[in-house]
Amino acid sequence: MRDCLVLAGHTDEIYSPTALDLLTDVERERAAAFRHETHRRDFVAAHLLVRRCAARATGVPEDRLTLLQHCDRCGPGHGRPYIAEIPGLGVSLTHSRGYVCAAAGPGKIGVDAEHVPQGPLDESLAAQALAPAERPLVSDNEALIRLWVRKEALIKRGELTLGDLRDMDLSALPVDGTPREDEPRRLEWEGRRLLEWRTRSGVAVSVVTDHPALLGRSAGSRVEEDL
Question: What is the pLDDT of residues 139-168, one digit of tens each?
Fold first, then answer.
């Protein structure tokens, strides 16, 4: 396996009550802890989708894959995900209010998705997240969230922390334009590959990998390569 597989879609397309049977006890406990049903469904759908990615990428059935997570500071139960049966496989997942995305493949992988807020620029988030060279490039929330999801994806790769956001300068990457799901944007930056798009419902997504990524149009569709 030389490429990474990315799958994304709306929670309602992916979620199934039977998906709980695939989850570990820890995952089921975390799912049950959500106060809102929509948040719980997002969590379950994302954890199902990352198994689906790993299964398609490796040929191992979903029901034979155990998703675990480990935090370098707190220990197991949350943090960076991995597949117990294939610890060398990179995996990542994200969910944002009814939309989920996951990826699996060789090397480090990070994915993040966030809704782009309406209204004026979120100055507080800009002050927290942007490097000095990035600030002049950002005039609206579209550009701000584009940079934010890139940095969150780098965090999930283990290359950045929330405390270091302003030290990571991504000003060499474009922030203009809104790449669509059917025409995602591909970028290369300092040895990393980025695949990104924006959904019609206003979700910005960034996937950062070491190798080329194949994007599935939705959870149930065939996997197609974007060239």
Answer: 999 999 999 999 999 999 999 999 999 999
